[in-house]
Amino acid sequence: MATILPADKQRFIDELIDLLKIPTISADSKYNDDIKKGASWVQNALSKAGCTVTEIFPTKGHPIVYGERLIDPNLPTVLVYGHYDVQPPDPVELWDSPPFEPIIKKTDLHQEGAIFARGACDDKGQMYMHIKALEMMVTHGELPCNVKFMIEGEEEVGSDNLELFIQEHKEKLANDVILISDTGMISNTQPSITTGLRGLSYMEVVITGPNRDLHSGLYGGAVANPINILTQMIAQLHDDNNRITIPGFYEGVEDSSKEERAEMAKAPFSLEDYKNEIKIPAVHGETGYTTLERNSIRPTLDVNGIWGGYTGEGAKTVIASKAHAKISMRLVPGQDWEVISDLFTKHFKSIAPESVSVEIIKHHGGQAYVTPTDNIGYQAAHKAYAETFGTDPIPQKGGGSIPIVPLFEDVLGTKSVLMGFGLDSDAIHSPNEHFGLFNFFKGIETIPLFYKHYVDLVNENKN
323: which of 55, 230, 268, 312 fits an S-S bond (Cβ 3.0–4.6 Å)? Predict the structure, then answer.
């Protein structure tokens, strides 16, 4: 495979920086024009890289960008999925540099430098590796099969309109394997391939007490304080062993075998480094499981945001009329996100006192997903990583969720291979998100090898 020339490296970085400057925040309608700008930017990049057909498909939400380069109908087809939308950068004051003014600087783990910007790793940097990999293959005449791209703008808000798009364009999206880089790996010296994703149920709750904010001196102790009530209700969602108390929550969850847990334990992991990196004195989680197990093969429930009353500077003595919280549950195989959402709703309402009313909003979710290691796509990824890193990758289940991935298999009938190049320390969804230049270029080098090995394995299985 062709190497990346120094001039090309600088050009690739400059292009990625241009993309990162566009604040494609899908959760905030103020940025709808930037979302459209981002979609046009990706379409143009696909065309320049070698796609012979590119299109932007409007949806009820944000647009989907499609591209293809089809060289022979008898050859396999790889569908690349990614997203150009990003999380909100809040809290902006915790960033060391403006989130949409990318800068490159060295870190302890990225001695070659890392790009700091919202979306650098999740998912613009990783998505753009695939576009540059296509360019490399086309330029050097090394594209061994057909390739299609589907890059969406709503992944960070649940991909609400992608299912309809897939249903309506099954033939256009027909493929033999789906390739995704929206996950991570263990380290820059020990690659890994994500073989599973957790599902997700994302809820919002609103607790309402009095019909207006009240003076806490005149009414305190006589009426229910929605913030007090909300925190008490949330505290009831876990027991002393940090197990989730929602009735039926664990129904269908299968405990991992001793053999599977033993394999997970082989992954290089330092608990002290883990604690030091995120500056915590001790880990916390479900009794009976290790840290690696808690954040990958076990379901969780976390409060992602909570607010109500007065939070400005100084003091204002009020009992708030309303209190709000956003709560997410990460799910494992055996749990259906719709069922879990209903169980949460029923239980949360049942533990509310009569002195308040409860509103529950189901935002979005998705099922858990597993890629078997005997799949040809996984085997091709394994060979590609081993070739570029010089060591075999470790299969590893991830704790994150990409709700659309299980749907791909249900509708399109093909498996997804999760080839991530980010690191846990890259601060995705957090201030100072970044993506190492080593990782960016290693991805561009590894992806073409996936194509090569995938086609080789397909041909071997035909014979």
Answer: 230
